Amino acid sequence: MKKVIKLTKIFLKNSFSNIDSRMGISTKSKSKIIIYGLLFLYFAGLIIFLGYNLLDGLIAIHQEKVFVGMVLFMIFGLTIVQTIFSSINVLYFTKDSEYLLPLPLKPYQIILARTNVMLIAEYLIIFLVGLIPLVMYGILTKAGIIYYFTMIFAVILIPILPVLLISIIVMIIMSFAKLTKNRNKFQLIATLLVLAIIMGLAISTSGMKQDLTNEEMAQMVVQANGMIELVKGYIPTVDYLIEALTTKSLLTTIIEVLKTIGITIVGFILYMIIAQKIYFKGLVGNLFGGGTSHSNKEINQKEYRNSKLYKSYIGKEFKNLVRNPVFLVQCLLPAILIPILMVVVVYAGFNSDKMRLEQITQMLQQMPTNTFMIVCVILGVIQFFTMFIYISITAISRDGENAVFIKYIPVSLYKQYIYKIIPNIIMNIITVIITLGIAGYILHLPVITLIALFIIATIMGVFQSLVMIIVDLKRPKLNWDSEYAVVKQNLNLVFPVLLSMINIAIIVGTVFLLKDINVYLGTGILGILYIVLTAITNKYLYNKQYELANKII
Amino acid sequence: MIEIKNVSKSYVKGKKSVDDLNLEIKNGEIFGFLGPNGAGKTTTIRMITGILNIDEGDILIDGKSIKKEPLEAKKNFGFVPDSPDMFLKLKGIEYLMFMADVYDVPQNKRKEKIEELTKKFEIYNQLNNQIQSYSHGMRQKIVICGALLSEPKNWILDEPMTGLDPKSSYDLKEMMREHAKSGKTVFFSTHILEVAEKLCDRVGIINKGKLVFVGTFDEMKQKFKENASLEELFLEITEK
User: Is residue A235 included in any domain, yes or no?
Assistant: First the structure.
């Protein structure tokens, strides 16, 4: 067990070490602690604010217990989403695997340590988004000490099963690695396959629950805490823990927690048995097996054609993003998948009741949609979607130690920064087009409004891309052990979220200030504001192009 | 020609990693830059290539200051970094064409130059494969090809022999000789003393940030011990 703990520590240290330690700067520097402290407070504050409003509303209609169910579901769902992305990288794509295999370690020790890394990464987020609302529930409902003990069990236990389940799915798919003739293509296909299977499962299970009639629904709402039944029946461990957290009987709490522990232990044993059988086959196959397809064909004459530098540079950036499964999934795909997924989930949610969907669509269309308020809502939604595009925030870090390349070639740094953020701007435009397409279809917005929205959202995309490359230049993460570390274990990724929140705050502020303004005038004012902000940021990037590159060494 | 004038660099205040370095690498010369680990070799090369800012002094590449006219100076050299693990997701040919676009290699010269270099290093048949499928030595070769594609007047190479097989190492040394013969400059760092002895017109030895010797091997022998081996001379100079 000692070896497992040591391995886990080493994996974690490897993942989170960054440029600062390389440059001899203490990672515990005061400014850093202050920044992360403020960020923590910001997110904690946001969660408390949203959670409190929701819980307050539920208490008013005596349905507060449903809040516990929602939080536990959120933890479960969040773990699944996070693990989809992390498992394939932590288990297969980390650079240290090659050095690990010859060491005198037992297979279970490596598997356990890898699993620990995934779980610890989950807990970091789950403590923030899960523990805070649950404590808030405890305080507002004046729960006893037993509740808090059970709550800790719940937060610790819930993420385990989804992590194990997703890891097994990944291991099964990756066990075919040794059969492949082209390892690189296989990695890409396997990643997309894992994504497709799990998303398919998530969407299909969302419609699993039997439809409720309006009368049944009404009865549940009227009955004190009847709505809790709505969130039950999907995942056994979540059900047990909802019961354990909301019951007043100590005996029930103990029984339900024991049931959860029992299922988790069984799941864990099964996981270890299967993982020990298939993990290393896949790992070895992925590292050495199958080789990489070698093409000996003559070079096409077209390949020798010269092209403009900007085309060549942007092409290189896109190739690096598309051919790397981790970057593809984390940086490119969210731009397309997130808006589509949101629509699919919303439609799946309403699917059981077609009448209701039609009624809602009709209702929306009867509303005066061509207003500044609606424009701002759509802009806010776009901001929410685009904050998941991590191209610009990782533009420098993705190059790793090779980032110095930009400093010794005879191309101005400013030009290179711009070439590097163009893929972010393009993906941002794709997200905007998809979102506006859906919004235009549902709300029947005039074409001119859609064009105005497209222009503003694109300018905001350029602004976001410029700000994010500046952040990455100021805080690059250049020595990483796997691509995954750049796009996931990288604290810089909070900055796109932060900027999107600020943008949303600006949009909300504008709505309050310019309530009844003409839609085009209001849109124009917002447009001018963002043009000015973009111009200032661009000027800063140009003027400071050399100083900003100081950390790239 | 590369001129290093009174160059100093500190990472930590009060401790100079490179201290008042003065060097002139003339046209037609192969210059070997030697020194123990942590002596300041890489820092110097990084300053010459513009990767690191210079605290004091200046560096001129064919008369262009890397500080004041960085883009012009960078056009005058081809650089091979110590790690060849770059652009792994690009195919060999894509990397070379990208470098050709960066250095404005004329259309009519590209094919000829790429074929000449890659055939010499025996990687021509691998050009349609991604660089990540290459061995360490092959990666080193493709990076060298990329740096030499634009026929730069000055070659700056950081540990270029690492990972090369004997034939490729021999070919690279021959290319360095030919390049110097045509009146151009080669500046490279190495740990392999025999390579430096056989290849270099002059060597510079740096230790603890200071240049402790510049000259030919004969001069080194005269100055220190006449009958000592190269290894002994190097140790004597750097351990003083």
Answer: yes
- Verify whether the Cβ–Cβ distance A299 to B12 is below 8 Å: no
Chain A residue with Cα closest to B107? A306
Can you tell me the distance from the alpha carbon of A507 to that of A466, in angstroms, rounded to the nearest whole number? 19
Q: Which of B77, B88, B14 is nearest to B47 (CA)?
A: B77
For chain A, the domain total comes to 2
- pTM (2 decimals)? 0.80
Residues B100-124 pLDDT 10s: 999 999 988 999 999 999 998 889 9
Paired sense of beta strands B30-34 and B185-189, if any: parallel
| Other beta carbons less than 10 A from residue A449's beta carbon | 23
The verdict on residue A231 lying in a domain is yes
- Tell me which residues of chain A have a C-beta less than 8 Å from any C-beta of chain B: 23-24, 184, 291-297, 299, 301, 303-309, 312-313, 315-316, 319-320, 323-324, 401-402, 404-405, 407-412, 546, 550, 552-553
Distance from C-alpha of A351 to C-alpha of A360, rounded to nearest angstrom: 12
B53 close contact with A: CB closer than 8 A: yes
Whole-number Cα distances in Å, A456 to A195, A368, A487? 32, 21, 27
Q: Which has the closest alpha carbon to A438: A503, A342, A356, A350? A: A342
C-alpha to C-alpha distance for A325 and A183, rounded to whole angstroms: 11
Mind listing the pLDDT tens digit for each residue in B160-185? 888 788 888 888 898 899 889 999 99
A360 and A425 both lie in a single domain:
yes
Min CA distance, A305 vs chain B (Å)?
7
Cβ neighbours of B94 in A, within 8 Å: 303, 316, 319
Domain parsing of chain B, residue ranges: 1-76+155-240, 83-152
Architecture of domain B1-76+155-240: 3-Layer(aba) Sandwich (3.40)
A106 and A254 in a single domain? The answer is yes
Q: Which chain A residues are within 8 Å of B87, Cβ to Cβ? A: 316, 320, 402
Residues A32 and A93 in one domain: yes
Evaluate whether A237 touches A263 at the Cβ level (below 8 Å): yes
Helix (H) or strand (E) holding B44: helix B41-48
A297 located within any domain: no
Asked whether the CA dihedral A174, A176, A178, A181 is positive or negative, the reply is: negative
Under DSSP, is residue B189 helix (H, G, I), strand (E, B) or coil? strand
Phi, psi of B3 (to 5 degrees): -120, 120
Range of the domain at A495: 309-551
Tell me the per-residue pLDDT of B218-227, one tens digit each, with 9 for 90 and over: 888 887 776 7
Q: Which two tokens stand for residue B42?
A: 């890489």
Residue A312 structure tokens: 């060549």
**Helical H segments across B149-229, by residue range:** 166-181, 193-199, 217-223
**Residues A286/A173, Cβ–Cβ less than 8 Å:** no
Measured in degrees and rounded to the nearest 5, phi and psi for residue B205 equal -115, 125
Q: How many residues does this entry show for chain B?
A: 240
Flag whether A300 is in a domain. Answer: no
Query: Dihedral of the CA atoms B222, B225, B230, B232 (nearest 10)?
Result: -160
As for the ipTM of the complex, it is 0.92
